[in-house]
């Protein structure tokens, strides 16, 4: 009975380790809905408050939700200079769907602005700093443990009396210092 329970526990541990090592079934993606907390991406969108406390990691996705009635297209520009000055002449990409999905596939800063230069100059722009997934973030909630098998309770090792001693007693004091014998003269 105990061997069967032990086998089941070891099998479960093995399958969890295989799943973790292969990366199967574990996803740390976060979907950030830009403007999802308020009126959406538009002239009244508060970029600063929306960004507060957010961390963007490789594998996350950004969804731009447009505010009602606003048809703000979104432009991604390459450099911080283009972003700051709202230079929209050479965009990397333009997002035109009512809900635009952007996959964050690598580390670095990405720069999104309104395609309308006036809206951009009025602050409708979003810098997104993408960091690598932290090696300290567990792929699933911890603590991760198995409950003890029913009826066995927690394992507490039992130690019996010490084994019997054989042979002469072991001295507790160090032996005297070594002195070489006097030289023999022939």
TrEMBL record:
> Which stretches make up the Phytocyanin domain?
30-132
Residues making up the signal peptide according to the UniProt record: 1-28
Q: Which residues form a coiled coil?
A: none
Query: InterPro entries per the record?
Result: Cupredoxin, Phytocyanin-like, Phytocyanin_dom
Q: Pfam families in the record, alphabetically?
A: Cu_bind_like (PF02298)
A single GO cellular-component term on record = plasma membrane
Tell me the superkingdom of the source.
Eukaryota
Feature: compositional bias, Pro residues? 159-186
Q: Which UniProt keywords apply?
A: Disulfide bond, Glycoprotein, Signal
Q: What is this protein called?
A: Phytocyanin domain-containing protein
Q: What is the lineage of its organism?
A: Eukaryota, Viridiplantae, Streptophyta, Embryophyta, Tracheophyta
């Amino acid at each position: 009975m105990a061997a069967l329970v032990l086998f089941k526990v070891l099998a479960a541990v093995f399958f969890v380790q295989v799943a973790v090592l292969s990366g199967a079934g574990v996803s740390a993606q976060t979907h950030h809905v830009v403007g999802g907390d308020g009126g959406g991406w538009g002239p009244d969108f508060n970029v600063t408050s929306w960004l507060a406390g957010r961390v963007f990691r490789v594998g996350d996705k950004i969804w731009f939700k447009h505010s009602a009635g606003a048809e703000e297209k979104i432009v991604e520009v390459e450099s911080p200079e283009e972003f700051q000055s709202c230079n929209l002449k050479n965009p990397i990409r333009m997002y035109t769907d009512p809900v635009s999905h952007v996959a964050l596939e690598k580390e670095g800063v990405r720069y999104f602005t309104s395609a309308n230069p006036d809206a951009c100059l009025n602050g409708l722009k979003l810098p997104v700093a993408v960091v690598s997934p932290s090696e300290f973030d567990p792929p699933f909630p911890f603590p991760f443990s198995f409950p003890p098998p029913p009826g066995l309770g927690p394992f507490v090792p039992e130690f019996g009396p010490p084994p019997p001693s054989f042979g002469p007693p072991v001295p507790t004091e160090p032996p005297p210092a070594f002195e070489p014998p006097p030289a023999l003269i022939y």
